[in-house]
Amino acid sequence: MTTAERHSSSDVEPTCMGSGKLIHTFALTSEALTVRLAPEKDYCAIGQCDGCLLLLPMPNKRNKCVRLELRADEGLPCTDLAFIPRRSEFRRLISVYASGFIRIWQFSETGKVSLWKNWREIEAKPDGEGDDDGVTKYNQILCLGLSPDNKRFVTGGSDTIVRVYDILGHGTGRLLIPSIRTDNTVAQNFHTNRVTSVVYHPRGVKDVAFAHIFFSASWDGTVQGWDDRTCGSLWQCAGTNVAGSDGLYVDSIRNLLISGSFKHDKVLSQVWQARTFGDPENRNSMINIDKPLSTIWQDANSPPVQIYVVRATPDNEFLIFGGTNCNMIKLIQSATMRQLALVTNLPVGVYSADTCVDVTDKKRFLVSFTNGKKVYLLLVDPRHPNFNEAP
After folding, report:
1. CA dihedral in degrees (8, 9, 10, 16; nearest 10)?
2. Could you tell me which of 141, 84, 143, 148 has the C-alpha nearest to residue 116?
3. How far is Cα 334 from Cα 258, in angstroms, rounded to an integer?
4. The pTM is what?
5. What are the domain boundaries of the chain?
6. Domain 29-127+134-307, what fold?
7. 60: number of CA atoms within 13 Å, CB side?
8. What is the tens place of the pLDDT at every residue in 74-94?
9. Mind listing the pLDDT tens digit for each residue in 268-316?
């Protein structure tokens, strides 16, 4: 059974610098691929490479540990997670898998859990090609995005097609495939390679005009903007490669898209305008935007890092980056690019992270991040530049 444990001096510890310090470690039996913190800040959900899904209580919480096992013949990774904010006595969590499964779970603080909905995405053939061997193939789902009103979610994966699902529906998602799709069109309004990240515009929480707007990133080198009521993307910009489901972030205050850079050794991240409406007169000029508005450069004095994670703190004041090669988690101030905190000396890369406000001090925040068979909790206090040295 997976355990949650405090740091012990006998373990080789990561190195913390600046305003953050590690306060807790979740030790696992398999490598963690994705992590999410519950809106109630009482559970940490972890998706593992062996497909198991864990709900582990946060420090000082008395909730029961929940381990959601899969069938014996299913062992592909759990690739992304999303908590559905509670609106009744039920608490729900969406999980997606490289096996093509989508599952919506219901759970409680007492450890009671049930599978509310379960279905599997069949690999789509947008160009009308059939299977030569007649065998049904399933989509390798890589990412998940929950709408601001918590009524829908979108998925992306290896078959390049974005799907939108109604949470209260019956699992028959709508494929967002343009009615005319040719790879020779000048202005493509679809992806041509695996979709690695999808995220809704946060402004949709308060502004209904943004409720259906979301963005996607793909291994085809583009970021695209969508309305989940239409089949083709509204616009796209090219020149970035987003590798992980946490590699695309929307700054709702400045209306910017921030993409993690996987292939550029000198680039930490790229910043794009989060265009939301595809005006016909501007469509051609909007689609071919190859240059970002700005670039966040890596530290020239450090080894290059391949970014999997771009996140922001709850107040949007700081950005969180994580990645591989130079395995690290870094926090910088959005306005000044000043480094706030840094965690290095990690044995493997960081593939996922999440953040929330510290319930005991609203000026501080927590960052959870994956690292091999561990998930760390980093407590950050921007008021103290040497918080890592505090007792």
Report:
1. 90
2. 84
3. 11
4. 0.90
5. 29-127+134-307
6. Methylamine Dehydrogenase; Chain H (2.130.10)
7. 5
8. 789 999 999 999 877 789 999
9. 888 988 887 644 444 444 445 567 888 888 888 778 889 999 999 999 9
